[in-house]
Amino acid sequence: MRSIAVLTAGVLVVAAAACGGKPPGSSGSDATSMRVGLAYDIGGRGDQSFNDAAAAGLDDAKRSFGLRTVKELTATPGETDAQKAERLRVLAEAGYSPIIAVGYAYSEPMKKVAPDFRDTRFAIVDDTMARGPNISNLLFAEEQGSFLVGAAAALKSRTGHVGFVGGVESPLVKKFQYGFTQGVKYIRPGYTVAVKYLTQPPDLTGFNDPAKARLAAQGMYDAGADVVYQAAGGSGAGVFEAAKEHQAWAIGVDSDQAMTADPEVRGNILTSMVKKVDVAVYDYLANIMDGTVKAGPTVYDLRLGGVDYSTTGGHIRDIQPRLEELKQEIIVGKIKVRAA
């Protein structure tokens, strides 16, 4: 497994390898013979968030391993479980293996498809419900990273009022909310945390609606919030726009968004809760090739460096020593961060 350096929804990464008739991943694979496909959920490559992080993992694998053939596909808003299942099935029937679904929206489709292709390796990011002997669950302790940016928000807020904008009100996104709120309250118990979700399941357009996120954040800033954390995929761009309009702070998610967002808003991004989806994708492909892949969950937490906070822009330089103290207290178990 690649060492992880210190640095939420819907991508599908698919790799196909010639395995000499043996079960995929059982004795390693030749990267030069692999056919790799990337099928994104709504937002796709260029969302400056979750999808881009997954794409970066595959790009890293291409450079490191010499992967030669890559195809990228993007789902349309409102896609059904049946359509997702059909995509997995078509790929499996064509001999692709492993098939990695990055995003909890693929949970039910994978439950239906994976048992029909027991010699095909599957993995899914951000989901624990799809289980099987040929399924690996690639998970993150989003609540731990969110605790740290919540602490940063509390330490930087001057109004005592901060906010959280979630894309879709799902168990996964609630992990971000719970961790953030705990971080704020740990530092400043009396501070107010406003919460707004853009859509409810099964409507996943909350991950790709910047206009709706902008309105939600504007309402929070107008009500007195001076820091708003977004866990909303491509919708997060709207939160950044609102922060700039109000000369306030926003907090990014999944990747270091002060490096990827529109240059016009980067100065208003206090920090980002970085989630190393790229590492999970890279590691899984590496483990397939060396034959060490395993079924079941792997959790990328603070201890493994799978989640963290970013420092781009230098806006949290003054509070970074305190954040590092909190990080170590979480790692050693002194602070328990709940995920629900």
UniProtKB/TrEMBL annotation:
Coiled-coil regions listed in the entry: none
Residue ranges annotated for the ABC transporter substrate-binding protein PnrA-like domain, each copy included: 41-338
Domain of life: Bacteria
Alphabetical keyword list: Cell membrane, Lipoprotein, Membrane, Signal
Segment forming the signal sequence: 1-18
Cellular component GO terms held in the UniProt record: plasma membrane
Membrane topology: Lipid-anchor
Localization, UniProt: Cell membrane
Family annotation (Gene3D superfamilies): 3.40.50.2300
Matches recorded under InterPro entries: BMP_lipoprotein, Peripla_BP_I, PnrA-like
PROSITE patterns from the UniProt entry: PROKAR_LIPOPROTEIN (PS51257)
Keyword Lipoprotein: yes
Family: Belongs to the BMP lipoprotein family.
Protein name listed in UniProt: BMP family ABC transporter substrate-binding protein
Originating species: Planotetraspora mira
Classification lineage: Bacteria, Bacillati, Actinomycetota, Actinomycetes, Streptosporangiales
Name of the gene this protein is made from: bmpA_1
